[in-house]
C-alpha cells in the first residue's frame, strides 16, 4: 500500500517535500477488520489548519470513499462502500462499527442511488453536514432574510447559499473570480455574487443587501468578515465556520476591530466544529440527497485524477482552483 506522511510542519503554503510518499506492507486482517481500496480522496482546508497542532510525522488524514475488498466484518461485506478518515492512502485496513463512529469515523456510504459515490466526501459527507447544520442550527434563517456567505463557490459555501435559497432567503455570495461569480448567479441561483478580489466589498455589499445582513456564514475570516459584520442588522446571527484567509499565515493575524458591531447590533456569533452533530449527520444527508434528486440543489466537483496528484489537488484548492468540492479520483 502507499500513503502520504507529513514529515514536518508547513511554513506558509504547504510544499511538496513536506510530504513523503511511503510504500509499506499491510498486515493480515483481524476479526472485525475490512480491507478498503480508496476510490475518492478528499482534500480540505482543515488539513492545512490543523497541521501546526499535530506532532510530526503523521499520516495525512482526510475523508475518503472506498470499496471493501476483503472483510472479516459481517456488516461490511466485500463490495460495499464506506467512508473513512484514512485519508491519503490507496489501501487501508479499518475496523468499523455499523453506525457513525466518532472515534474511527468509519461508516457505510449512504445509499446514493444513481449519484456518484464521490458525494460521500462532499455534499453527502462532511462538507454537506457542515453547510446544513452550521447554517441551519446557528443562523436559524427565516424566509425573506438576507444571508451572506463567503467562500461561496467552494464545497461548503456553494451548499450554504443553495440551502438558504431553499429556505426562502435572499443570498449574497463572495468568491474569488468572475467565473465563480457567474456560476453562482446563473447556475446556483444566488441573488448576487461578488468577486472579493476586485470589488469594493463595502460598497458592493451595500448595493447587494440594501436591507442589511441578517445571517452571515463565514468561511474565510479576516478583514472581509469585519466588513460584513459592520453591515449586519439588529439581532443578526453569524456562523463562524472557517478562516481560510489566515491558514497559510505563520505570523499572528493583525487584530481587526469588530466589537462595536457585535455590541450595537446585538449579534450572536458562534463558531462550530461539524462533529458536534455527528450523530445527526444522517438527517442532513437525507435532506441533501432528496434536494439533489429533486433538482433543488446542484453539486459540482473539481476532480483531479490520480493518487500521485493529491498534493497538487490540495494546494490547488487552497489557491482557489476549485468550483465546488475538490476531490481526487484514485
Ligand atoms: P472550499 O471548497 O471552499 O475551498 C477553499 C476555497 O477557499 C478556495 O476555493 C478559495 O476560493 C477560498 N480561499 C482561499 N484562500 C482564500 C482567502 N485568502 N480569502 C478568501 N477565500 C479564500 O473549502 P471547504 O468548502 O471545504 O471549506 C470552506 C471553509 O469551511 C474553510 O474555512 C474550512 O476550514 C471550513 N470548514 C469548517 C468546518 C467546521 O467544522 N467548522 C468543516 C468543513 C470546512 P476563492 O476562489 O473564492 O478564493
Automatic annotation (TrEMBL):
It comes from the Eukaryota. Pfam families: ADH_N_2 (PF16884), ADH_zinc_N (PF00107). One of its GO terms (cellular component) is cytoplasm. GO terms for biological process: prostaglandin metabolic process. It is found in: Cytoplasm. One of its GO terms (molecular function) is 15-oxoprostaglandin 13-reductase [NAD(P)+] activity. Keywords: Acetylation, Cytoplasm, Fatty acid metabolism, Hydroxylation, Lipid metabolism, NADP, Oxidoreductase, Phosphoprotein, Prostaglandin metabolism. It is an enzyme of class 1 (oxidoreductase). Monomer or homodimer. Belongs to the NADP-dependent oxidoreductase L4BD family. This is Prostaglandin reductase 1. It comes from Cydia pomonella (Codling moth).
Amino acid at each position: 500500500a502507499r500513503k502520504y506522511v507529513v514529515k514536518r510542519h508547513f511554513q506558509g503554503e504547504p510544499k511538496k517535500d513536506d510530504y513523503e510518499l511511503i510504500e509499506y506492507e499491510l498486515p493480515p486482517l483481524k476479526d472485525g477488520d475490512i480491507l478498503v481500496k480508496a476510490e475518492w480522496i478528499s482534500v480540505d482546508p482543515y488539513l492545512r489548519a490543523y497541521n501546526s497542532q499535530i506532532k510530526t510525522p503523521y499520516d495525512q488524514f482526510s475523508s475518503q470513499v472506498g470499496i471493501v475488498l476483503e472483510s472479516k466484518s459481517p456488516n461490511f461485506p466485500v463490495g460495499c462502500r464506506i467512508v473513512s478518515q484514512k485519508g491519503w492512502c490507496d489501501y487501508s485496513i479499518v475496523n468499523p462499527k455499523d453506525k457513525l463512529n466518532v472515534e474511527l469515523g468509519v461508516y457505510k456510504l449512504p445509499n446514493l442511488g444513481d449519484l456518484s459515490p464521490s458525494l460521500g466526501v462532499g455534499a453527502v459527507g462532511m462538507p454537506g453536514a457542515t453547510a446544513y447544520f452550521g447554517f441551519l442550527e446557528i443562523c436559524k434563517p427565516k424566509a425573506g432574510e438576507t444571508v451572506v456567505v463567503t467562500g461561496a463557490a467552494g464545497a461548503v459555501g456553494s451548499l450554504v447559499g443553495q440551502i438558504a435559497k431553499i429556505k426562502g432567503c435572499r443570498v449574497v455570495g463572495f468568491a474569488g473570480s468572475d467565473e465563480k461569480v457567474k456560476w453562482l448567479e446563473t447556475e446556483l441561483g444566488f441573488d448576487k455574487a461578488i468577486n472579493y478580489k476586485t470589488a469594493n466589498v463595502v460598497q458592493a455589499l451595500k448595493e447587494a443587501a440594501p436591507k442589511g445582513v441578517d445571517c452571515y456564514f463565514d468561511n474565510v475570516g479576516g478583514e472581509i468578515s469585519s466588513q460584513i459584520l459592520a453591515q449586519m442588522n439588529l439581532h443578526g446571527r453569524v456562523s463562524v465556520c472557517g478562516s481560510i484567509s489566515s491558514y497559510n499565515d505563520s505570523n499572528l493575524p493583525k487584530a481587526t476591530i469588530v466589537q462595536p458591531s457585535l455590541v450595537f447590533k446585538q449579534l450572536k456569533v458562534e463558531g462550530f466544529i461539524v462533529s458536534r452533530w455527528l450523530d445527526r449527520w444522517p438527517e442532513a444527508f437525507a435532506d441533501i440527497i432528496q434536494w439533489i434528486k429533486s433538482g433543488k440543489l446542484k453539486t459540482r466537483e473539481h476532480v483531479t485524477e490520480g493518487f500521485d496528484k493529491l498534493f497538487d489537488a490540495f494546494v490547488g484548492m487552497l489557491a482557489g482552483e476549485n468550483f465546488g468540492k475538490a476531490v481526487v479520483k484514485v
